[in-house]
Amino acid sequence: MAAPKKGRGPSGGQGRPGRTLALFLIAMVALTGGMFASKHVTPRLGIDLAGGTTITLKAKSEPGREDAVNETNMNTAVGIIERRVNGLGVSESEVQTQGREHIIVNIPKGTNEQQARDQVGTTAQLYFRPVLTVAGSEPTTTPSAGSSPSAGSSPSPSASGKGGDGENGKDKATTPTASATTQGRAVTDALKKAPTPSGSASAPKASETPGAPATPSADPATAKLQQQFTALDCTDKKQRSAAGKNTKPTDTIVACGKNSVGQWEKYILGPAEVDGKDVDDAKGVLDQQRGMWIVTMDFTDAGTKKFQKITGKLSQQAPPMNQFAIVLDGEVVSAPQVNQTLGASAEISGSFTQQSAQDLGNILSYGALPLSFQEDSVTTVTAALGGEQLQAGLIAGAIGLALVIIYLVVYYRGLAMIAILSLIASAILTYTIMALLGPAIGFALNLPAVCGAIVAIGITADSFIVYFERIRDEIREGRTLRPAVERAWPRARRTILVSDFVSFLAAAVLFLVTVGKVQGFAFTLGLTTLLDVVVVFLFTKPVMTLLARTKFFGNGHPWSGLDPKRLGAKPPLRRSRRVSAPTDPKEA
Fold first, then answer.
1. How far apart are the two ends of the chain, measured CA to CA in Å?
2. Which of 219, 256, 443, 471 sits at 20 to 30 Å (Cα–Cα) from 304?
């Protein structure tokens, strides 16, 4: 077998630089064509550049449920929050998990920030609880049974059937009440027993005196709850926030809520009979016949049975004990009266505005989350400020690119043309892929991502410099350009790969361990690092191989950046040994 000839160029793609370069250009044209065909010719901008609100939520581990913060529950919460945001009529919103216990909600400009925070930040469980007692917001005396509503009380919303299986054919005549004085009765097990008919007072036992508290003194837990209700001041924000928190669905609780005229009231509420998961759908709609906004509710099969049971009991009670409270995150968001036994469907009517009806329907439909959350941060950026930040980022990128080009031209002269062409190719690929990733995976270019692209300019230029310096080292050793290009490549390739691997590893770790906008920086840095490898292997090297065959570069023109004299090239080491062979006795 004949031995292979020495001096033959490497086989494969590097031996056919024209073919490699053509494939690269075809791929770049295809990506650019796909960008124009999809009509997404600009990258999608993040909230900090386009304007909007970013809300970062952190999942909280509750006592006894430390394992509840898991991937399944987080994904469920994302779906519910996303539907809740979309229920506001928001377009192009983003809800996604970040890390193990964070959810990022990006809401674009044009959305009411406070409304969005009220809807997104209210992330606790939703419960339907029977009302046992209701009073004004101020601290009160111990409530007594049979208290009558005061004059000037505001009406409460009422709940009635809508296509359900009502047991009572007619609505009961009830007087809507929500007074400033205590109504109902003290905490008892009344709902578990036969209800006392309204309008008639039971004869007191011998041990009872009129006006005495109905709470059994022998029950310390009940007495404690009664004291909490008596002392509660719902106008105080701290007390209002603490009321109803850290309770179980089976607990009887105190809670605060606003009535139909916006005044704070306090409640004693019985154990939860229905939770938010039992609501199949709810929405605020305009009743054309009555000319008023109402909230309609549809329940699941299991929820229908629960709702029939509780409304059957409540409909036989006198106000306000015929009310059920809709409790979200320990706060009463509505307390409608029940006029009949309700089934699979119901409606809540009252003095709703369009906004309040739609908000309540949204909460009812998407209120039940498997986890509780707290706001870690809320960032709001106006569209004007976002435009200024984008402009500043582009200016910074242009300045950085100009400085790199000036350095390359001054130091590398003709080689700078190859570097500039490579930077242009990298920029086209980066821009095209970012534009395509917007509709594909929801990638949004934020300000940290712009910073990552600027940093990538230096990383890409560093790869060119490594290769150019290897070529110049070969020329300094006395080799001509064409063999210098091929001999320098394996050594430069190894250094470039190691350097890019370290950069990509840092970007990957940063992406995995951070949340929020920092991930935009990490994603862009990792993407541009991968593109740097693609450009150097499939564009820079083939172009360098082709240009080495030209007279300008091959003969070492003074402006080529590869002039042997300017580089201080020396004759090859082997040639020096042959010339200095010991033929002269004096040299020996």
1. 44
2. 256
Last residue of a domain, one of 305, 327, 362: 362
Structure-block tokens of residue 52: 């909007």
Helices (H) and strands (E) in the chain, counts: 17, 16
- Note the pLDDT tens digit of each residue in 110-132: 566 676 776 675 545 688 899 98
Give the full edge-to-edge strand order of the sheet including 102-108: 94-98, 102-108, 52-60, 372-381
* Torsion of the alpha carbons at 16, 19, 23 and 24, rounded to the nearest 10: 60
Same domain, 176 and 95: no
Residues 355 and 376 placed together within one structural domain of the fold: no
Domain enclosing residue 65, as ranges: 52-123+369-381
> Domain check: are 174 and 146 in the same one?
yes
Residue 199, pLDDT > 60, answer no
DSSP assignment of 522-580, as one string? HHHHHHHHHHHHHHIIIIIHHHHHHHTTSHHHHTT-TTTT--HHHHT----HHHHHHHT
The size of the chain, in residues, is: 588
Tell the residue number behind the tokens 């290009």, with chain if given.
485
The answer to whether position 210 is within a domain reads: no
Q: Are the CB atoms for 324 and 129 separated by under 8 Å?
A: yes
Q: Rounded distance, CA 581 to CA 588, Å?
A: 9
Instruction: Give percent of the chain above pLDDT 70.
Output: 72
Is the pLDDT at 248 greater than 70, yes or no? yes
266 part of a folded domain: yes
Give Cβ neighbours of residue 417 (< 8 Å, ≥ 6 apart). none
> b or e along 65-87 (b: 16 or more beta carbons within 10 Å of the residue's beta carbon)?
eeebbeeebbeebbebbbebbeb
pLDDT tens by residue, 402-460: 888 898 888 888 888 998 999 999 999 999 999 998 888 778 788 888 888 888 888 88
The number of domains in the chain is 3
Residue 101, C-beta contacts closer than 8 angstroms, at least 6 positions apart: 58, 59, 69, 74
Cα–Cα nearest to 427, from 510, 350, 543, 532: 532
Q: How many CA atoms lie within 13 A of 572 on its CB side?
A: 7
pLDDT of residue 217: 44
Which region, left, alpha or beta, applies to residue 294 given φ > 0 means left and ψ of -120 to 50 means alpha? beta
Q: Taking the model in full, what pTM does it have? A: 0.54
Does residue 334 sit in the same domain as residue 440? no
- Alpha-carbon distances of 478 from 488, 537, 575, rounded to whole Å: 13, 26, 10
CB atoms < 10 A from the CB of 292, how many?
A: 14
Task: Give the position of tokens 């992406």.
Answer: 511
Residues 115, 179 within the same domain:
no
Between 62 and 172, name the one with better pLDDT.
Answer: 62
Q: What gap in Å lies between CA 116 and CA 90, rounded to an integer?
A: 9
The residues that bridge with 237 in the sheet, in sequence order, are none
- Read off the pLDDT band of 477 (50, 70, 90): confident
Cα distance between residue 469 and residue 5, in whole Å: 29
Rounded to whole angstroms, what are the CA distances from 440 to 38, 127, 433, 520, 530? 10, 38, 10, 16, 19
Rounded-to-integer distance, Cα 53 and Cα 109, Å: 7
Outline where 371-446 has alpha helix (H): 383-412, 415-441
The pair phi, psi for residue 415, each rounded to 5°, is -65, -20
CA separation for the pair 465, 396 (Å, rounded): 22
